[in-house]
Structure formats: C-alpha cells, structure tokens
C-alpha cells in the first residue's frame, strides 16, 4: 500500500482537530526534554500543527512536515492566525529534504505505525539520521503490540462528537500476524449515506525496535510506557522512544 493511499482518516482536518486537539501529554513531554534553550526542531507527520505550534510559542524554531495537503493547510491557517513563524512543508517523511539539520526530531500521534514495511521504516530512520545534528535526538511513539488484544478480530461501537453533532461509529479491526498490520475499518452513522473509511497500522515488537534503532546509528536513551513517563512493561499499550544519534 502506498502511503498516500492510507490517509482516509484525515479527510476532514477540522474534525481531526475537534477529536484530538485537546491531547497535550506529548507536548508537555517534548517541552520538558527541550528545556529553556531555543532549539531547532522538526515535527514529522505534524498534521494540523498540534505539537508544532506550542513548541513555537515556547520559543523553538520548528519545521513541520506532513504528507497530507489538507492537514498542512489547516496547520498554516492556525499558525498564521496567531502570527507565529512556523514552516509547514508538504513532504514524504521517508524522502525528507530540508536545508538545515535539527537538534531534535519528533513524531507523535503513533504516526510511526504508518510506515507499514521494513523498507518504509528503514527509509524513515535514514531520513531522520540525515537531518539531525551530531548527538541529536529522535523522540517518537507507537502502539505496543499486546498479543491477546490483537489475536482475534474486534468489532465495537462508540459515540463521537463531530461538527457539534453526536454520531455513532462502528469499528472493525483485523490483525494480520504475517505483515504485522492492523486493518481498522469504520462506519460513521450520521444520516444517510453511511460514511466509511479505513486505515492500516504496522505494529513493531520491542526487540525489532531495538535492532532498528541500533542498525541506523541510534541508541535508546529511555523508553516509556506513555507520555507521562510511565514504566514500559510488556502489557503497555504504547511505547515512547527517546533515541540519540551516536
């Protein structure tokens, strides 16, 4: 699957902001890691600027990169409305081409799972390495594969508020243990016709991640079970990786 064919979930940037815009634990974590000295930061898969914009408010120089034109457009609108100097660029993170290296590269929102193949993951790490200053860091999160949760297809319903309206969402999730990809399909019931979208997400196991990090010239500084710095244990639903370029 091409990366540009896996973006249905982001068709409505305003609705994405409405649902996810209030999450701030990753922003707080990243600001703590940066400290008070202004730094150069690249925010990969930046979406609507949820992470980039607060970093700029704190005095850091930020470049946001995303593959989705609509998400980048909304990020620019938000930054412009506050008079903030943020460079938002439409690029594929696997083929990153920026003029200056960064002290820190971040990737939040479990965006690492969009890199579905070993080749995609390799290209991402190579791009990150090329764009980091010596000793720079790469901080990213991804869902941790918990086998009993992935073993059987899951179907569930939940309510959501989109555009001020309450809607029903029916989700079907099916995991392929060979490709390690979870296929998530959603039917949104909000009148007629029913809206459908889907997304594919790659799961990476802890030892795979350790090898990937070392293979590309990084070392783990720390690893957490969430953005609140909880301990990473086998049953953690998430892993936050803090890697340094060797």
Automatic annotation (TrEMBL):
InterPro entries: Methyltransf_25, SAM-dependent_MTases_sf
GO MF entry, a single one: methyltransferase activity
Matches recorded under Gene3D superfamilies: S-adenosyl-L-methionine-dependent methyltransferases, Vaccinia Virus protein VP39
Gene Ontology biological process: methylation
Record-linked SUPFAM superfamilies: S-adenosyl-L-methionine-dependent methyltransferases
Name of protein: SAM-dependent methyltransferase
Keyword Ion transport: no
Organism for this UniProt entry: Bhargavaea ullalensis
Pfam family, one: Methyltransf_25
Lineage summary: Bacteria, Bacillati, Bacillota, Bacilli, Bacillales
Record bears the keyword Transferase: yes
Domain Methyltransferase: 41-136
Coiled-coil intervals: none
């Amino acid at each position: 699957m091409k990366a540009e064919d896996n973006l249905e979930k982001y068709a409505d940037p305003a609705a994405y902001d409405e649902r996810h815009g209030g999450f701030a634990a990753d922003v707080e974590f990243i600001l703590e890691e940066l400290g008070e000295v202004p730094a150069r930061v690249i925010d990969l898969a930046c979406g609507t600027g949820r992470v980039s914009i607060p970093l700029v408010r704190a005095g850091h120089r930020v470049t946001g990169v995303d593959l989705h034109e609509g998400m980048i457009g909304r990020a620019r609108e938000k930054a412009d409305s506050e008079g903030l100097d943020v460079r938002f660029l439409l690029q594929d993170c696997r083929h990153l081409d920026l003029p200056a290296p960064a002290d820190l590269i971040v990737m939040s929102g479990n965006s690492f799972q969009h890199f579905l193949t070993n080749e995609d993951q390799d290209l991402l790490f190579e791009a990150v390495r090329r764009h980091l200053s010596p000793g720079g860091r790469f901080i990213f999160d991804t869902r941790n594969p918990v086998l009993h949760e992935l073993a059987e297809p899951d179907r569930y319903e939940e309510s959501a508020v989109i555009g001020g309206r309450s809607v029903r969402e029916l989700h079907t999730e099916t995991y392929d243990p060979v490709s390690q990809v979870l296929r998530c399909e959603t039917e949104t019931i909000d009148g007629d016709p029913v809206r459908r979208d889907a997304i594919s997400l790659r799961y990476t196991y802890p030892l795979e991640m350790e090898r990937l990090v070392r293979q590309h010239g990084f070392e783990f500084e720390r690893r957490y079970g969430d953005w609140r710095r909880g301990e990473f244990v086998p049953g953690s639903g998430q892993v936050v990786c803090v890697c340094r370029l060797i």
